[in-house]
Each structure stands twice: as structure tokens, then as C-alpha cells.
Amino acid sequence: MAILESSPPSFSRPVGLATLGCDSHFAEPFRIGSPHRIHIGRDVWIGPRAHLSAVEEIGDNHYEPTIRIGDGCHIAEDFILHCAGEVDLGSRVLIAARAYVGDSFREYENWREHRGDTPYAEAKPIKIQDGAFIGVGAAVLPGVTIGEGAIIAANAVVTRTVPPRSVALGNPARVIRSWDKKAGRWIAGPAGNR
Amino acid sequence: MIAFCCVSDDHEVFYKRAAPAIQTVIESDSLLMRRHLPSSLAGAVNEMLTRAAEHDDLEGVVLVDQGLDIGVADFLPRVLTLREEHRSTAIFAARRGGAAPEVLATPALSTASTTEAEAIDGSLLVLSPWAARELRLDPRLELSLDDCAVDLCRQARDARRQVAVLDFGVAFDTDIPTYGAAL
Asked: Considering the entire predicted model, what is its pTM?
């Protein structure tokens, strides 16, 4: 298939990541915070204007972030990933444009005027397992696991774990279909409803 | 495939020296690894060697100091040529000498300039696939980068493999601290 682009993005292999696997590339421009906290597997493609932010400190608060992006992941443009704890993308995860993944948020337990040094709340790990698909504009929030091969619809806001081989949509996202392995077809609702 | 490994304790030094140098010589299929302020230098080197050795197509591991500048664009072809011509050599190292900054390069590589050695310092080592698979450091020891290099060389020679120094085309700025100097 021919692709017509006004100015094809140029790709680079940034040095300074904890790991950058063979044949993995970033489209320019990109922004990477604390690259030594980020492991990228092999054959990973990350689209233009990605912002990978491993947050080590805000004001007097210190964090130990680790981001892992597995082999064969493809991530479209304008991806934002904020990590103050642990975010783990398995292998062959496909992420559409403008998706957001964040394992924490600005602390609001006590009222405060929000500023740049407002600390993060406790980070909760995010896992996006092998072969999952995250749709356009979807947001994956703290503590969520997205199961193997799960499909997250466009603009979904995922606040709870999504089981493997299921489809979730909406805000907050709910599971509307599950793959019935025995029947070889999708069934309505979560797998537990069978 | 060539793997590049670097241990750093100073972002500024790394991004001023080693990072741009590595950037100019890497290829699309190079594996890049950096460990910043690891709890154990030896443990970090072991872990990177293990990850590199997992690749069936590994042709060599370049262990580079954070303050090292690889000054020649055809560095990787040189490494591969050396690997081809010196199959029994487990570890190659850049020759060091002269005043600061120490310029170790001679522009044209001559394999005749390769000199067998007992041990070498840790500014730049090129490990063969065998060395990446077989040689490991004791993570309980608090080793400097030079200590690591000496120990790897000792193990290679104990296994009846050669260690060689040669003109690799690199510069090491002695005004910039090597790993661990600031600790």
C-alpha cells in the first residue's frame, strides 16, 4: 500500500535508555524523561511526538520508576506515558494515536493549589499484556492490567482490569464482549456471564 | 549484531562524551544498554553481558566508559574485521597513552598494531561472543571499571584465550571522571 505523506518523519535511536533493542526506532520529535529508567525491546516502533516520562523526583519527593516496552510493540503518534512506579507493556502491544497511560496522578487528598511541584499520589503498577490493542485516544489509569489480546475501544477510560481476549469501551470502560475459545466466537459481556 | 554497554554515574559526562560517540557508530540492529548508578558495577556488567548473550546473532560486546569518545565513524567495521582476523582473541581493548586528553587513535587500523597483553584498563573493551557468554564478575566485590577489565582479562587468559590491545580510534578525556570517581 502506498502512503502519501507531506514530510515523512525521520527516525532515530536515542542513546541513554536503559535498553534499546535491535531494530527499535523513535520517530522524531520525541521527549523522554529519565531515559535510564526505560527499557525498550527489539523491533519496537514509536510514532512522532511521543512523550515517555519516567518521573524520578518532584520537589522533595523521589520515585523509582521503571518503564518496560516489550518486543514488537508498535505505538502511533502523540503517545503519552507517565510513570512514577512501574509500567510494563508486553510483546506485540499495538497502541493507536493519542493514547495515554499513567500509573499515578497529582495528589489531591488534601486540598492544595496545584503547581508544578505538587507531588504524585502513590503509583499503582500498570500491565498491558502481550498482543493487547489500545484504541485511539484511550486512557489507561493507575493499577490497571489489560489482559493478553484484549481490545480497548477508542476514547475508553480504563479504570479497572480488563480480562484477556475481551473488548472494553466507554468511560469508565466496561467489558462488552469476550472471546469464547470453545465456540470460537465473541459472546456478549464479560466471560463470567456465560 | 554488536551490543554497546555503558555504566554511568554522571548524566552530564555520559551525554557529553559516550552518548554522542555511540550515536555516531551504532547501526539499526545494535543493542544499546546503559545502567546508571547501579548498586553493583560488577552486577550491572554481568546483567548486560547476559542480555547481550541471549542474541544468537551477537558478534561482539563493546563495553565503553562514560567519558570515552569513539572518534572514528567506521568503528563497527573495524571491530568486525578484528573479530574475523583474530578468532582466538576474547577481548580487545583500546590502547591508552599520551597526555590528557589521551588520544589513542591512529586513523588507519593496522592489525599489525595488535599487541597481545596480560590485562588492560576498562576504557573500551570489545568482548567476543564467547567472552559475553562465559565471563562474569563477582557481584559481591566493589570493583572499579578498570578492576572489571583486569578480572575479565584474567578469566579469558585462564581459559587460554587471547587478550589484545590495539589502536581503535578513541579518545579519553582524563579531565572527565571515569565511572565511580565521583562516588
From this structure: 0.89
